Amino acid sequence: MAAENQDNLMKRNLATSWTRVSPTLAAFVRSKITSLHDAEDVIQEVAIAFADSFERSYNKTPLIPWVLGIARHKVADYYRAKGSTPIQFDDETLKHVVAAFDDIQDEMETIRNALDECMAKLQERPRHMVTMRYLRDMTVVDISERFGMSCNAVYVMLHRIRESLAKCIQHKTHLRLRIS
Amino acid sequence: MREPYKLIQLYLSQRLTDNEMATLSAWIAADPEHARIFARHCVLHSSIRNHLQEEDLKVTLQLYGESQSPDTNNSLADTDAIGRELILDTGQSEDEGTISMIKVRAERQLQAFLAEQEQLRHEQQALQLRGRFGLNEWCEYLRDVTGRIATLMTGGARNFVRAWIFASIVLLLVLVIHGQYHQRVVATIVQEVDTVWAYTPKSRLLRPGRLELKKGHAQLQLKNNVEILIEAPCEFRLRSLKKLSLTEGVLTAKVPPQVHGFTVKTPSAKVVDRGTEFGVRVGRSGSTLTAVFDGRIQLSGAHKSRESRERSVLVVENQQAQTSAAGKLTGDVQTLEWEHGFLRTWQEVLYRPRVSGQCQVLAQKPTSLELDELESSSHVFVFLEQANLRLASDWGVATILPGPIDLKSDPNFYDVITAQTRMDCYMIHFDPETSLDGEIERSQCRATIGFPRPILGLITTTDRLIQSDPLFGDPSIAYPTGNRGIEPGTEKKPQQITISKDLKSLNLDLAAGKHIDQIRVLIAAADMSYEK
Questions:
Q1: Are the beta carbons of B40 and A111 separated by less than 8 Å?
Q2: 80-119 in B: which are within 8 Å (CB) of A?
Q3: In three state form, how does the secondary structure of B272-299 look?
Q4: A146-160, B19-33, B136-150, B158-172: the lowest-pLDDT one
Q5: CA–CA separation, B23 vs B165, rounded Å?
Q6: Residue B110 — very low, low, confident or very high, per pLDDT cuts 50/70/90?
Q7: d(CA B236, CA B475)
Q8: Is the model's pTM score more than 0.80?
Q9: What is the pLDDT of residues B181-196, one digit of tens each?
Q10: Cα B73–B111–B126 angle (5° rounding)?
Q11: Are B483 and B462 in contact, with CB atoms under 8 Å apart?
């Protein structure tokens, strides 16, 4: 009975810890892998490794650095399997990045809520482009053909859309996203 | 050196060079706030996907009418939010009662979710054991009912009732399957411009059924990635992922290689794709013109006669074929004539002018517009110089009004196109050919050019054309520096430019001599703004 209670408690802790880290993990992995479907596969692999090692590491290691450490290896495995070596941060920079993700944990919800409002303001055409890129995971080449634009123009448009959203979120939340 | 913000955007697009990565790394390491800004951008990038996935899920649930039990999760975000509230230390003191309420709510939602999962698992097991849709239980119930009825009847009546009940079950199953089949989504409206639908679709997700586009253009994508570009007026019916009926109007279809046998049926023809891009135009009479831009199609008539149905032709790239309203193939397969004006891409929808008369649209920009470089005595040329240009400062123009333009008097600037206005710029060019002995053919050209959006301004004088070249022209084109504007006409050489009532078309009657005639046309750009 006691063992069963202990087991349930560990499962509950796993679930709540995962709820806490998954937005950060998604942000980290999606920034490193262009294909969003592939990114989600990698996130699932991280989830499995996280669950496997949870019992022995829980409360012994800070949560965010630990899961991002797993993610870093899984991303490296992904690129190794693809036969490519993308340009990545060095270890020193990665430490700053991981620390920053840990710092902004409390801001995730705020950014998401502000984004919901800001996305509602997007006009039709940029919304289409964003839907193609982020929901349908279309490549820039496919999007450029669909819109009749060059690939570079599509990249520029996506950058500008993110810039608009960043400006909107900064205005609503006073969190610094713009570099002035 | 690129700005840090641009480096972050390049990072998110996986387009950084080694040097740029080093610059970004140094910037991140220089200040913890820089690293946090970087992390926030990664969160934004990721959250866009989450937002769109949640929206997509809500639409799907609405469409399929999922019922919401009060005890189940109403929103994934809701549970997440509660989870975060539970876990995160916000650093503020919270009312204990509130915390307790949040915990109880989260606990209830978790239990309800686990109970749902358990229920689903049991149901799936039961389905596997007992067969689909609980068919066995239903059959047992019906056997029971028919058994009771049978005890009250004689032998013949018993058999009749059993047969009737069996037929009813079969009919009901057919109706249910048919209904389910027609409820599924087969296509999405990807983009549309200036559209007016006879019956506005309830959402961008389209099910099999009839659609009528009265105005504008729309691009659909079927679930199997077939792309359909529709031009109004157009009436059609989506039948399935591989079948579409076109009653009247124009469409072009781009079929990916993995889709075999995509078919467009018209009142007079049946077009079966064999790996291709093609256009179909159905006239009011029902006659059909089919043009193939890439690949090939199998075309057969829809005439009742077996001979017509059996006689089918293969139409390949750069060919066209016609069927009469009666559904018979008329004539042989011919070389494609481009004045049929199919629009093949969304870019053409947005930018390609519609011309009639002595005018040719250039798909590629010329390298030079100097005298004798782009000559024709039989038609004028029109092409897009720049798209989506944002005006840096105000630009004076003569007021655009329907009717003929006064070419005799000096154009005063009664109107201003204000700074920040977005527009597309076109060039109309007329340069008659010079014969070998240096004589210019005195040519008269009449044409009508329709632009996709209203005209904001016309530049017709040499001075203003030269002045506007750096602003509106294409830097890759060599523009003439000599006389190139539109002169007032004479009795012998009439010249007239007339603007249509809707301000979207120009009617040209030009007589060129030894000089070039050019008109620069500024029209409103397609809507490109990002924020309301």
A1: yes
A2: 80-81, 83-84, 86-88, 90, 110
A3: EECCCEEEEEECCCCCEEEEEEECEEEE
A4: B136-150
A5: 78
A6: low
A7: 44
A8: no
A9: 656 788 999 888 878 8
A10: 90
A11: yes
